[in-house]
Target: C2 domain-containing protein
Amino acid sequence: MDANGYSDPYVKCLKPDMGKKGKSKTQIKKRTLNPEFNEEFSYDIKHSELAKKTLDISVWDYDIGKANDYIGCQLGITAKGERLKHWYECLKNKDKKIERWHTLF
Model:
């Protein structure tokens, strides 16, 4: 949260082995503590290779003139708890959208 009591969050997706081609981010949601992101990213990757890859999805607070703050919620093979369960569910269900709400920390 910024000094004004709000945050300017956005979601960043990074697929490390693709370089800049694997980097995507949502629009910044201005002045909110309860953002909803209804945006979709897609990467062309074989399902058989997906378990070997890492997709890093994280939430950040945009700040002008200084480093953006990490808010939380990473999904991928390095996640823990419910986030890791979500990742595994995505791996198990080929060609199916798996949607879940995640609490930010």
Q: What stands out?
A: The longest helix spans residues 81-92. The chain is about 15% helix and 20% strand. The radius of gyration is 15 Å. The helical segments are 47-50, 81-92.
